[in-house]
Amino acid sequence: MLKLSRPLHLLLAALTYLLGSSIPAYLGKSFSALAFWLGLAGVLFAQLSMSLLAEVFRPHNEPLVDNETPKQKETLRNNLLYVSYGLLTVNAVLAFLLYINNSLVLESSLFLLSSLVTIILYAVHPFRLIERGFGELALAAHIAYVIPSIGFLLQAKENHRLLIIIIIPLTALALAYFLIINFTTFIADQKYQRATLLRSLTWERAVPFHHGLIIFAYVIFAAAPSLGFSFSLIWPAFLALPFAILQIFHLRHVSIGGKPNWPLLTVTALAVFGLTTYFITLTFWIR
Q1: Do 232 and 131 lie in a common domain?
Q2: What is the spatial distance between Cα 85 and Cα 90, in angstroms, rounded to a whole number?
Q3: Which of 137, 159, 181 finishes a domain?
Q4: What one-character DSSP code corresponds to residue 144?
Q5: What's the chain's average pLDDT?
Q6: What is the reported pTM?
Q7: Residues 82, 203 share a domain
Q8: What is the band of 1 on the pLDDT scale with cuts at 50, 70, 90?
């Protein structure tokens, strides 16, 4: 069950939540430790339920774990469903605790609701975006846009364009990372006829789309000073730029017939999104 919970997604969710929670203090807002911890637990439970529900409704021709029997598969599927329901129930309790603690406003309530809606659209029939070529987009939006917005709004109680200028390019980098994962699992996806973003786009369109996502992200970061934001807040995002350049050149090398190094490409893509988020988060926390 540990593998099915996707611990890396939980780590990324925690990191983006920390990012969202770090910005209000820079804007002069007071910090609520109770809202922070309740919100952190909530987004982790939400991300975990998103991963588990995706496995619960996985097509029956795909194994959940290696060498499973039909009985073991059905038992595991039921257990994952019960755990998912439990996590969502606990999230409802956490939302109520935030409400009675006066930590919820209309904006934060809407993002909590959007998190639930994204989970359902991503994993549950009849929507199940994960099987329609939009799963990666929903996953990137949840981790890089919805979760940091929740962290921010639980502290600031109102939205701010500084948050938007940061999480939009981060969402693009997150989508580029999940697209890279599609490349590494392409053979298995073909075998089981999974409608991933890569298979929907095809390699010919996916490669320039991937490059465009990364370029778009750094153009937005570079444009931030012209929109009235201090470059001292944004420049740490460019510390991961060498990894982004390596990621683009390596994928181009693969696309023209070169031998792929999938572990290197995966780590590079993860570093671009993860380190960019980490460096910006660190900048706000130490200010």
Answers
A1: no
A2: 9
A3: 159
A4: I
A5: 93
A6: 0.94
A7: no
A8: low
Domain that holds residue 95: 1-159
- 229 and 283 share a domain? yes
What's the CA gap between 31 and 40, in Å, rounded? 14
Both 150 and 201 in one domain: the answer is: no
63 and 116 in one domain?
yes
First and final C-alpha spacing in the chain: 39
Last residue of a domain, one of 159, 192, 226: 159
Average pLDDT rounded to a whole number, residues 71-75 = 85
Residues 193 and 270 in one domain: yes
Tokens 């994952």 found at: 80
Residues 206, 111: Cα–Cα separation, whole Å = 30
Alpha carbons 11 and 42: distance in angstroms, whole number: 14
User: Rounded CA gap, 250 and 227, in Å?
Assistant: 33
95 CB contacts (<8 Å, ≥6 apart)?
Answer: 42, 104, 109, 112
Half-sphere exposure of residue 103: CA atoms within 13 angstroms, side-chain side: 22
User: Which helix (H) or strand (E) is 1 found in, with range?
Assistant: none
